[in-house]
Automatic annotation (TrEMBL):
The chain crosses the membrane at residues 48-66. This is RND transporter. It comes from Neotamlana laminarinivorans. Keywords: Membrane, Transmembrane, Transmembrane helix. It comes from the Bacteria.
Amino acid sequence: MILIKNIRIILLLCLTLGLAPFFPEPHIWGKLKWICGGAKEMQLMDWFDVFLHGSPFILLIIALTIKLKNGI
């Protein structure tokens, strides 16, 4: 499957797009803390940021799950 063959690229996406910008803290981390705090006053752009920065991690979880399920 294409996800399993490209797991290194997905990992690279997680480390770059998923965590950018890196300072003062990764963007996805700040958004997740905001959501855990109740997501008050989050607008559509903020939810798009969560999707954009979180999608590489979702792909990585899916790829690893398929890899473990197939025993590869």
